[in-house]
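Apologies for my clumsy wording, but are you able to produce some protein sequence, whichever is easiest, and the tokens describing how it folds?
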Amino acid sequence: MPEGDSIHRAAAALRTALVGKPTLRADATRLVGPLPTPGRIVERVVSHGRHLEVVWDDGLVLHTHLRRHGTWHLYREADDWRLPVADMSVELRTHDWVAVCFRAAQVETYRQFDRSRHPGFGPLAPDLRDRTADLDECANRLYHYPDQDAPVAEVLLDEHVAAGIGNVYRCEVLWATQIHPFAPVSALDGDDCADLIVVAAKLLRANLHHLRRIDTPFVKGGLAVYGRNGQRCARCGDTVSVNRSGDHGRLLYWCPGCQRHRAPQFESFDADETIEMDPHPAASRYLHDLPWRRTDAG
């Protein structure tokens, strides 16, 4: 029987292997709900009691209830599974890992409630991955967003503005345009809205056929800010930060040093809302020893 501590350890291992990485393939037996979309990024893994959930950047949640006999295992591609294939309930594959849930009592997927995605907001916007998408329409939807006090970082995830932007892409797009992620929509002008949509479309289309990685034209070798908390910004040299944002606490990576365009006049972030890195002593030591963060640096 899985106990709370073993499920907690399994969730920690899955976070290391899955979070921030695209899912290449997902398979599940007796699944109630849709399968995760290939290429979507795992945003977090959480456990409570004998329940374990995997959450993707499009709001899809995979819920597994392990009860008495269920368990999650993590394997490398060439590893032999320790339990029979017939006992498999869920299989999630990334470029480096295979996460397998065995003998789950319940497997379902659902989408998190998000008021900005309520049907009352009208039909979905054009998909930016489609090369025929009307970018002017998306920019106009952003400029005239119903909730003008909403921060732009949250509005970019609303598929009534532009479809296809997930959490990784919104972080990279905001960095590329140097727009402050907590700027209210009301602070943006028409050019700001157009820049955001054009850059998002460019990035999404550049990665249309990449399931194993996300490339950006902004930084040589990969991502500029996503997953780089505590590291130096490639543009200004400041330290990349990460905050939880929105009703669902998605991780928002950004650079306070150079993302100053349309910054709110009064910024107030609760100290416990800012996450620099895993609080493990080794992580703290790593941050302390960064050359640009040392108090004795000349």
